[in-house]
């Protein structure tokens, strides 16, 4: 564990007050090293974070009463209500010289309590235009990014499939994420049961963890697949240690979620040059351009999903998707370095604000 002790150099604290892995936690894990590399000194605080991230201890928070020798403010960057409240107490009750930033990913009306906290922040970031629409205060939209140096197209689609023991002559449509209703796994299975008899060259792969709570849900899907005689064409891979080889083997990626905070998986697939079909959940509508990098199912129903996937199958058959263009759009708009730079700019402005 890296304990950060040089508080005179500390510029930003990124709290994580939730032990269980979540999208917010993952954001912190991905962003902090990139932000530090860009010249902002950030340390984390709280449980559930890997040891390679620099951390400060709760017992050292009293050191925030003293400004750095530079005279600049420090930043407390909250992403949850509990973290906003802690920042408010530090600044307004304990009179610590900190500025408060809050990132909102929620795409729903906020409670009165959350609105009260939000109004007390010094700067608000929305992760998408959709989440920003639920904010009643000035804000900046900064969409999440991904590591485009990691998620890259394969040198050969055939070799990528063979490495996973997949027949290179088959087309593969993939769906990743935890197996549960909120991720729309059942919608994907229903769409596959309708479409695969019409598209004999395609097979489907579902990958992701199934928790005990949803084991019956998965079992019911497997029974339905077997009853339709599709057990040799729809495959559950379970949880995999690295999703990249699968993205590189997929010919089409589907994100059928009913609910999503933001949703990075389509970006990861597109960064690998794979066209996508998504629902309207999360920020998918702000990523997908109809007919250019994929299609959007306008309703969370298997019929609408089937139509969108069928359109994508036909586009792929006619070679109407441009793999380099799909990849380039992600590099242009959704690199994690772009996200880090935009957030760092907000930090710098607040550090120098009286």
Descriptive labels:
354 residues; alpha/beta; Rossmann fold; 2 domains; six-stranded parallel sheet; 12 helices; 16% strand; elongated
Chart the SSEs and their pairings.
Blueprint: E1 2-3, E2 12-15, H1 23-37, E3 42-45, E4 54-55, E5 74-78, H2 81-93, E6 98-104, H3 112-118, E7 123-126, H4 129-132, E8 140-141, H5 157-163, E9 171-176, H6 185-195, E10 202-207, H7 215-227, E11 234-238, H8 244-249, E12 252-255, H9 265-271, E13 276-278, E14 294-296, H10 302-317, H11 323-333, H12 336-351
Parallel strand pairs: 1-4, 2-3, 2-5, 5-6, 6-7, 7-8, 9-10, 9-12, 10-11, 12-13, 13-14
Account of the 3D structure:
By secondary structure, the chain is of the alpha/beta class. It has two domains: 161 residues, 3-Layer(aba) Sandwich (Rossmann fold), CATH 3.40.50.2000; 177 residues, Rossmann fold, CATH 3.40.50.2000. Helices cover 36% and strands 16% of the residues. The strands form three sheets. It has a six-stranded parallel sheet, sandwiched between helices. The relative contact order is 0.13. The mean pLDDT is 94.
């Amino acid at each position: 564990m890296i304990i950060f002790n040089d508080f005179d150099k500390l510029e930003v604290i990124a709290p994580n007050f939730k032990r269980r892995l979540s999208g917010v936690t993952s954001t912190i894990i991905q962003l902090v090293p990139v932000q530090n590399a860009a010249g902002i000194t950030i340390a984390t605080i709280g449980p559930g974070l890997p040891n390679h991230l620099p951390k400060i201890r709760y017992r050292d928070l009293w050191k925030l009463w003293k400004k750095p020798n530079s005279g600049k403010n420090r930043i407390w960057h909250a992403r949850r209500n509990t973290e906003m409240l802690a920042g408010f107490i530090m600044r307004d009750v304990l009179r610590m010289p900190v500025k408060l930033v809050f990132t909102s990913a929620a795409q729903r009306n906020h409670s009165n309590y959350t609105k009260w906290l939000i109004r007390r922040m010094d700067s608000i970031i929305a992760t998408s235009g959709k989440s920003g629409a639920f904010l009643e205060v000035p804000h900046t939209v900064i969409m999440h990014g991904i590591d485009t140096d990691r998620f890259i197209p394969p040198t050969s689609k055939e070799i990528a499939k063979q490495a996973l023991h997949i027949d290179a002559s088959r087309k593969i449509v993939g769906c990743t994420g935890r197996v549960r209703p909120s991720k729309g796994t059942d919608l994907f299975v229903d769409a596959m049961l309708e479409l695969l008899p019409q598209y004999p060259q395609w097979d489907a792969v579902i990958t992701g963890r199934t928790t005990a709570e949803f084991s019956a849900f998965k079992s019911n899907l497997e029974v339905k697949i077997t009853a339709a005689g599709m057990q040799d064409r729809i495959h559950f891979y379970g949880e995999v240690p690295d999703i990249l080889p699968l993205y590189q083997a997929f010919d089409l990626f589907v994100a059928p979620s009913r609910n999503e905070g933001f949703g990075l998986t389509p970006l990861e697939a597109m960064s690998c040059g794979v066209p996508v079909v998504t629902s309207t959940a999360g920020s998918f509508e702000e990523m997908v351009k109809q007919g250019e990098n994929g299609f959007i199912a306008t309703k969370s129903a298997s019929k609408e999903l089937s139509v969108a996937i069928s359109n994508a199958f036909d586009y792929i058959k006619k070679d109407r998707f441009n793999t380099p263009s799909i990849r380039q759009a992600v590099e242009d708009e959704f690199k994690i370095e772009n996200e880090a730079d935009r957030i760092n700019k907000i930090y710098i402005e607040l550090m120098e604000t009286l």
